[in-house]
Amino acid sequence: MLTPTNIKNYIDHRNHDLFKRLSKSYTITLNKILERRDDGNHALWFCRINQDEADVTYYDDIESSCFFTHELLHIDVISRGFTDFRDLLPLIESTKKNLLFACILGHINNMFAHTKFYKDFLDLGYRPDEFVSDYDSTLNINEIINTINASFDNRELPNEGVNTFISSYFTAKENTNPAKNYGYSELIEFLENKNKWLFQILDRHWKNWIGSTTYNNAEILSSLFDQTEIWHNAEKKTNEIRSYFINGLSDILHILLDEIIRKIYHDCRISIIAQSTAQLLTNTGNSASHVSWNKEKPELKPDRIFLNISAGDETIIWDLLHEYGHLIDGPPSDQIDNKLKDKSREMKAWENGMILLNKAPQYISDYKMRMEFCLNTYDKLSDEWEV
Length: 387
Known about the structure:
single chain, alpha/beta
């Protein structure tokens, strides 16, 4: 139940001009919620905007204009082109992204908004500790880490561990309380070590946002959603491939497999040469691993990567390196029946794949043995290979 509140009680010399300016574009109302929240956070304030109406709502009267001004600044950034999180929902509907972001989208967008008006808040004469209601709240790093570790690695969706990883990164980066810096530094270090690829995606988009003068959060968040979904698909595929190794993998091969999958799912997608959007398919029943190039597209993009996993040993990784070598080499010059009986092209793909083995030199001889076996049997297999 809501009860209207007199806005004049929250207007003073600090926010008077801001309120007056915004009132020219919006009808601003202030309401108090009479029901108590179950989570105990009764200092919560929030704002909903519908066209030219802005409704500010709160739970407890703190007898200060600071939180009301905070909400006015939310209205201000929206008036400058910032997209409210409710209007961002179409960006994640009908995709896996809704399971990755739906429950934390409001939180992330809130962090993005805060970076755009925190300085304005201070310039109006308010103190840092008046910016948010949880400024002095206790930070439980161990609880955050335990939540992430509990489910992050299985990559299933929805996933509280993945959601906590993403949301806690932005919470740490948006922090304005120096007393929490040490704890958040520890958390950031944990996140980077936990999954460097996901961390880099979040970190790159955050830095792009705070370094920009634009209020166009929708563009940066859309890119964040897309790249995080690519990350998730790649991680799921990596877990699947790991399951095929009968005797497991050494630590160095675990790292190598992660890098190959990242190269296929990320680097090759932005490569000028390949711009791959190929799906990696395993256990397909094909007699040999190969890349299928889509002849229907003028730009000739890789369509699918078939990976034969019947061996159940390191051969799977050597074949995956070889197919990655085809991706970075680009499409064949001859597309008769989508087959190219060119041994030199196969050799080039093997050489391309070997580059990644610089980080695992102890396996180069094994890789070369697989390469020689495949090249020696090339004539026999070429009728079945598409490249």
